[in-house]
């Protein structure tokens, strides 16, 4: 993937994409504001969520060991994966041990992060997404562009065309009515649910005291995947643990309101190990690090691990609304992706090096975050790291020049007078690296007289 400015250039010129994004994000934003406004104690809930996450992260090693003991005691098996390659090897080995060549999947950002579908395909195992939006993305050979609504960049007509082209059992007279599209997907997936013997999921939360995993979803496909197959494999980031059921209560209020604008989500599925005669016969939990302990070591950036994947920050971000999710080159788009992805992957590539700059720093993301992640502060910190790592040389040179100019009053005064005299020769578009700035902005006109000179002239010589 190219750097964010290049990747987003095509997106901002796509009027249909901008319309789809604006309509969807504004709708979700409005619903969220309405249900959050109903709670007098929303600020206290938000503070509680932040405090629980921070306390958990400070003692993450202890809670993860407690979780492992509880899962094992309940009949499950825990696997530890240091990175994506190890997690993929573990899951592929578990699937192949069952003799199956296909799995059904619950929507999971962790499995997308590690490229599990592709890794399974390389081992001869087909992974079938069952979430409606993920199914649309998979059938369209596409990439998710939103945390909550992966196919947010598609409209109904485009989805209908994908179904007719890629879904053999779709009716030929399929309309682009949402009800008809959902029914076509339901019929397409029914046989998958009933015949699948292995399922792969993620989890929104893991309760350390009981070893319980929790999935929140809106369609019921998750419930089908979590209960019908004989083997269930859950790949979950280590930061998803919460200490107790009482802590979980806080997040079950924060997440639905912040994500879908609902007081509670339609389906909340919980499972603890295995139960004879009920649900899967085998349960495997793959605890995924993949850069998370490195993020935890960063005093400023570690707050990104509080994220509960609600996507509220995406729905208010003016940059995301115009650029869409694909420009971020990651399963985590938007403001949270701009701070989480560079920390998980490092600032080594042009794309990851540019992501901290994919923001206006307006602060809207912080205002809506249900766990109070100060995304603008992390973005500024990452920008400093990107500069120190050797990127953005032109900006660094510009800052050095500005420091030299502003450090002496006489230098600034002379520069202002010179700029006033030469204002007619200043181009409307800067040359070289400066062109990237003026291509999207108008240079402000240089006044004939600086404020400093005007003040001195009109105040009798007093210094401003």
Automatic annotation (TrEMBL):
Residues of the Lactate utilization protein B C-terminal domain: 389-457
GO MF terms, alphabetically ordered: 4 iron, 4 sulfur cluster binding; metal ion binding
Domain LUD residues, every copy: 66-286
A GO BP annotation: lactate metabolic process
The keyword Iron-sulfur belongs to this UniProt entry's keyword annotation: yes
One Pfam family from the record: Fer4_8
Chain segments annotated as coiled-coil in the UniProt record: none
Highest taxon, organism lineage: Bacteria
Keyword line: 4Fe-4S, Electron transport, Iron, Iron-sulfur, Metal-binding, Repeat, Transport
Positions of the 4Fe-4S ferredoxin-type domain: 304-373
PANTHER family for this protein: LACTATE UTILIZATION PROTEIN B
Designated name of the protein: Lactate utilization protein
Organism, scientific name: Bailinhaonella thermotolerans
Lineage: Bacteria, Bacillati, Actinomycetota, Actinomycetes, Streptosporangiales
